[in-house]
Amino acid sequence: MSKHTGTEATKLFYDQLGWKERDGRAVDPYLFGVHEDGPIRIELHEVHLERVRNALSRAGTNLSLLECGCGGNPEQSLLDLCSDYTGVDFSETGLEMAESKLSTAGVPHQLKAADVCNLPFEDGRFDAAYCAHMIYHITETASQAAAFQEVMRVIKPGGTAVFIVVNPRPLLFPVRLLKRLIADTPFVGQVADKLRPQPPLPYKPMPLRWMQQQLASWGNVEMMTYSLPTTAFNQRTSEYKGIGKQLWKAIRWLDLKYPKSSVYLGNYAQISVCKSK
Description:
It contains ten helices and nine strands. With about 280 residues, it is of the alpha/beta class. It is globular and about 55 Å long.
């Protein structure tokens, strides 16, 4: 069993704040939500979900599916692929919310409080696994590596794992790229880290090539764009007027036409791994 654990600060954030309700709404939209859902955003969101579904479907039909980091929002768009669903998260508050949403889903399910770095399942237990926006909230590099290994361990040979991760060096967004290069520079990055305000949620995105290397020994690794815009761009740039309208058209074109070759350009990536038989 792995000696590494997930980030306690992440657990505390979600237990104490992240899944609680504020005036009838979850707190998450205040941190990550957008103020506008235009047609391009909606179209690309549906395209990205379909890419996830296609990748998971390579493992077969009627899947035994594991979702790591399901929190209070299990990905219900994947349930029709499942014969049974298992969600794990180390936030008990989130799991309580997840249970209320899955209770009427019509798919056999179980929810477990568990650390992705030390999953309580035997080798090859699941046909497929889905882990979205979770790995980069683990602050220790060794623990991120352990999380990848654990997810792949519990998948059957021939099964598929899909990870949605941050690209810390998006070439389309030079300001964000520069900040990341500074953060990755010895000493300078340490000083900058002490000077800037700490985010409410732990955040340590590793380079895409590093993640690819962690997974390469398990089977075929495929990377493609999941979302080109950064969260700030999503929140601040309208697709209805001005230069924002043209930028969103360019983003749509890149995403739809070159999903694989544009993976290093944008903010989020989908990494799919077909485990060797």
